[in-house]
Amino acid sequence: MARDYLECILNARVYDVAVESRLDRAPMLSARLGNAVYLKREDLQSVFSFKLRGAYNKIFHLDPALRAKGVIAASAGNHAQGVALAARRLDVQAVIVMPRTTPPIKVRAVISLGARTLLHGDTYDEAYAHAQELARAEDLSFIHPYDDADVIAGQGTIGMEIARQHPDPIEAIFVPVGGGGLIAGIAAWFKQLRPAVKIIGVEPDDAPSMHEALRKGRRVTLNMVGIFADGVAVRQVGKETFRIARKYVDEVIIVDTDEICAAIKDIYDDTRAMSEPAGALAVAGLKRYVEREGLRDRDLVAINSGANINFDRLRHVAERAELGERAEALLAVTIPEKKGSFRRFCRAIGKRSITEFNYRYSDPTDATIFAGIHLTRGDEERDKIICGLQSKGYPVLDMTDNEMAKLHVRHMVGGSSTSVGDEVVYRFEFPERPGALMEFLTALGETWNISLFHYRNHGAAYGRVLAGIQIPEPDRATFRATLKSIGYPCWEETDNPVYRLFLG
């Protein structure tokens, strides 16, 4: 079967719509990591993503009679644009089903390419199910985003190009993984022709579908996936892509949101191009691999898979990039509530830049401040600051890796309340569509009072909410059952020390 993929990749029809993307050395990143880092620039394709390769190859190889009836796809982004462009070039009618939460910029992009666009459901799974129904009802050919041999072969042309562009030894190629079509195609090519090259997948820690499948030796379905790296937010990898990955992929590395944001900044610093979160996954994984293995003087390739990022997400990326680079520490520090305390605290920190300082009077004896401090030497410097403060008698809580602190508390005002009883605190993800909040409040009913609320729009399909709700102890089992019936992803934060310090 692998030999068949070599032939399919060699004969893939992609260059009617795709360009042979550049393999650019990243000089600043290379110097910092002590290795030669190369970026495969799929962000330079006409739809700013590699997805047009597989989509075009699949539609081109359809039986002419099937192609004449039209095609249909389900996607919230890059695959949708790839199918729409391919259909237009081949003069095929295309229907794209997108979740209602899809950002308008992506909907407009698909419409501009001539496809009929239908908005259905709040999630990809709902859009996918509706597309399958329409495919049967209207006798349309469904173009799968990853679990299809022609799609895999189309994406595999990226591996063929890398092999031609870089004939010298390559230590490893890092590939973002969603459903697995991209890594399956690249692995099928390289492991037959240059088997010494490691093929390493990279997934976000809140959508590790391939990592878990390889670990368990079977495909798994995740209960839910995070949506920051929406281009790879897949609950289950493909059957065929898993078969290939199980045979040829060396490992899958997991990275977090902060590391992804730092990688977006790394790519920008070297190219002045802004990658989408999924597009920067490979660089984030490459950096973690280099640190773990202590690599020096090797040639490493990262697939920059796409640049379809909403402009309003850049604020969030910029905030988290410093944390991903370990260039900012977030600390909760207790200082005496008296004149001169802040000056003495700054003196204890030394000649370092304070990036943030949040404080609200709540106690006549002690003050708890939320402090952001710029770091130049990462965790080593952070540990030194914390030890220095503690040696001077300051109680310190390190919040650098606390998601509630990073996502909500640093942006909130008002401080603690002494008059709110029976408060429980949850983080929620809400679909970004009109009426979602009202539906949530209606489902809660008028039984319980909302005592705290913070929402931020990050330009993604889902918004993040922190809510405090007054629930007497006897009602909490009923409340948890109500949350389960509503179905929004949620995490209880009542015992989070950051809540206790700043909001409780």
Topology:
Elements: H1 2-10, E1 23-25, H2 27-33, E2 36-41, H3 51-60, H4 64-69, E3 71-74, H5 78-89, E4 94-98, H6 104-112, E5 116-119, H7 124-138, E6 141-142, H8 149-165, E7 172-176, H9 181-193, E8 198-204, H10 209-216, H11 239-248, E9 251-255, H12 257-271, H13 277-293, E10 299-304, H14 314-324, E11 328-336, H15 341-349, E12 354-358, E13 366-374, H16 378-391, E14 396-398, H17 403-407, E15 423-431, H18 436-444, E16 449-456, E17 462-470, H19 476-486, E18 490-492, H20 497-502
Parallel strand pairs: 2-10, 3-4, 3-6, 4-5, 7-8, 7-10, 8-9
Antiparallel strand pairs: 1-2, 11-13, 11-14, 12-13, 15-17, 15-18, 16-17
Task: Write up what this structure looks like.
A six-stranded mixed β-sheet has the order 1-2-10-7-8-9, with helices on both faces. Strands 5-4-3-6 form a four-stranded parallel β-sheet, with helices on both faces. By secondary structure, the protein is of the alpha/beta class. 47% of the residues are buried. It contains 20 helices and 18 strands.
Number of β-strand runs = 18
What is the CATH topology assignment of the largest domain?
Rossmann fold
The order of strands across the largest sheet is: 1-2-10-7-8-9
* Major β-sheet profile: 6 strands, mixed
Q: First CA to last CA: what distance? A: 60 Å
Q: Tell me the domain tally.
A: 4
- Unreliable residue stretches: none
**How does CATH name the architecture of the largest domain?**
3-Layer(aba) Sandwich
Q: Give the CATH level 1 class of the largest domain.
A: Alpha Beta
The proportion of strand residues reads 15-25%
What's the average pLDDT?
Answer: 88
As a percent range, the share of helical residues equals 40-55%
Inertia-based shape: globular
